[in-house]
Specification:
Alpha-Beta Plaits, about 230 residues, single chain, alpha+beta, 2 domains
Length: about 230
């Protein structure tokens, strides 16, 4: 491998790491552009070193007077990169209020390492194609395939009978099925304050934002929010 080719591979690793990292940084994720570039370049360096070591070992054996053959174990250094990057990915995952965040960023870091190895080994087409797939997954997939994650809808209201009838009629009109209801009552003097927590089956095009906006317009409803299950 010539030095200019090694430099080209490192430059491509910088570009691909930068492209993925910018997307993560735009969404204010814990690992941004610099982290992804460093991971991708580091993986590329290991792959380049491994490629050069194999080439040097083969050349040395061929030029030897007593050519008895040489055994080469492929992928040992690269395998350590793939497994070792896990500690960095784990650092981007955190738990807050029973919600896990950072899994996608950890996966993108791991992919950046794999793409860096592909670049370092000289598989440019695979690296570019992999980068395109990663970017499509990060930017477009969620827009094309929308999944309503199950949440609880907490509604605080007064005038129990008429308000519950309104809520149930609204859910029925948009085709949302109520799976479970938890309730709580607070004595506020003249009017009791009721709190119902609904678990909903969102199998249609309705969204939680639509539900919150619609129910908040009703005068008897004092507060409404979504909660993670």
């Amino acid at each position: 491998m010539t030095w200019w080719e090694a430099g080209l591979r490192l430059l491509l690793a910088v570009v691909i790491g930068c492209v993925i990292g910018i997307e993560r940084e735009r969404k204010n994720r814990p690992a941004g552009m610099r982290t992804h570039v460093l991971v991708c370049v580091g993986a590329a360096i290991i792959a380049i070193v491994e490629s050069m070591m194999m080439a040097d070992a083969i050349t040395l054996n061929l030029n030897s007077v007593n050519n008895t053959g040489v055994g080469i174990s492929l992928g040992r250094l690269s395998a350590q990169v793939i497994s070792g990057i896990g500690f960095l990915g784990a650092g981007t995952i955190f738990i807050s209020q029973k919600k896990i965040a950072g899994l996608t960023t950890a996966a993108s870091l791991w992919n950046a390492a794999c793409l860096g190895i592909a670049i370092g080994m000289g598989y440019y087409l695979i690296a570019v194609a992999g980068c395109v797939i990663v970017m499509v997954t990060l930017t477009l997939l969620q827009r094309l395939i929308h999944v309503n994650a199950m949440k609880n809808v907490e509604v605080k209201f007064i005038h129990r009978v008429e308000t519950i009838a309104f809520i149930n009629d609204y859910f029925q009109s948009i085709g949302v099925k109520v799976l479970d209801v938890d309730f709580h009552v607070e004595n506020k003097g003249k009017d009791n304050l009721y709190t119902n927590i609904y678990t909903l089956d969102m199998q249609n095009k309705a969204t939680y934002m639509d539900i919150v906006n619609k129910l908040s317009e009703y005068a008897n409803i004092q507060g409404i929010r979504t909660r993670n299950i």
